[in-house]
Amino acid sequence: MLSFFKRKYVNLTTDKKFSEVLAGSVYAMAARVLATAISMVTSVIVARVYGVQAMGVLALVNSFLLLVTIFTVMGTGTSILRFIPEHIAKYSASSAYYVYRKVQYFVASVSLVTGTTFFFASGFIATRIYSKPHLSFFFALSAVFVIFKSLMDLNTQAVRGLRLNRIFALIQIIPTLTMLMVLVVVTFFSHNQNNPVYAQLTAFTITAITGALIMNRVFKRRMHPEDIIKPMAIREILTISTPMLMTASLVFFVGQTGVVILAIFRPESEVGYYSIAVKLATLTAFALQAINSMAASKFSELYHTGKMDELFHVARKSTKLIFWTTVPVLLVLLFIGKPILVFLYGRDFAVAYPAMSLLVIGQFVTSISGSTGYFMNMTGDQNIIRNFVLIAAILNISLSLVLVKSFGINGVAFAGMISLVTWNLCALIHIKKKYRRTIAYIPIVQLE
């Protein structure tokens, strides 16, 4: 067994074509692990000090901001991953910078208008949609910070586009570390039930400002007066970004449908239990997210320079690395997930174990499939992956609405698992038909 893993390690580390992605993934994965650990500590503090209802409110605020910022970023968070390496490879760093700056101004403007609209509509949302008037304050407060959450998301992706491995690792840690530090300080001075929400919004603000300063400084160092600049109109940017917006919004519904539907039909306590199940289940996705952070811009570069063999080589290697780093986490959560829930959050949270197990299975299928979404977005198939995710989202919402009243958090978790499996299988079938090759990986099974 030891020699088997040693061979896998040597094979990965000596592959020059994959070395850039691997090196970046190591930084990203280490940062992701640290950020996840910090987030777990924070969630334990919130659950034990402030209670399950505070966990539910915090989960709802995060879901609200995730939903709103999907539409304020307008898909540019994904398209910027394609634009930056493409413009650097074809034109210059200055060309990439002007595209980034135009996108940044556009996102900031849309965020201001959207945030203002939701601020005045907060009472309607809380009363008419959620039937919980006491949540009006939280929706209004969250609306004020829409611009910071939007710019944080955009700048995080832009750093990935520049393949700034260490800086991207840092930006992954800043939100969770800042939230923990702020939460500890405010808890020490005041035991206000709203402290977790205040800490989260402060963390988004600090990360957004830090990311903007970093991007501006890095680009200025790379730009030269003689650089070739290829202008891009907002219409051209949105033509490519809009399908990615739809994909991102649908991915949100696939990932957050459970929280939203539970918030409508069930008490805040069940939202809290489900949010913990999601938090633990997505531990299996940390490798996928870390490797995607480096692989996506590489996919764009290789595809737009016509290096198809190298593109599939890097994609398959990425999936292999995802698989072997996911298996241990998967097994731990499936076999001893209930004791972990009880130890970390208390005996009441044991009810989240079945839902967590279902979500873990869905995440594992995603890991086996590889970077299907980013692969298709970076290679011009953004419209097709949008359609696949649309099918998954409709399936997720339909199943959740049918199952939530009878099965609660387990019903929405089952719906989430089925939708993830459907989306990834559709993407893999399309890639196989189009290129006669696959990016999926299952040990022993020969897929090529």
Describe the structure.
With 448 residues, this protein is mainly alpha-helical. The chain has one domain (2-435). Helices cover 84% and strands 0% of the residues. It is built from 17 helices and no strands. The chain has helices at 2-13, 19-50, 52-73, 76-90, 93-120, 122-129, 136-144, 146-161, 165-189, 195-222, 234-265, 268-281, 286-304, 308-345, 353-369, 372-378, 382-435. Helix 4 runs antiparallel to helix 11, helix 4 (76-90) crosses helix 13 and helix 14 packs antiparallel against helix 15 (353-369). It is globular. It starts with a helix and ends in a 13-residue tail after the last helix. The mean pLDDT is 84.
Tag the structure with descriptive keywords.
single chain; 448 residues; mainly alpha; 17 helices; 0% strand; globular
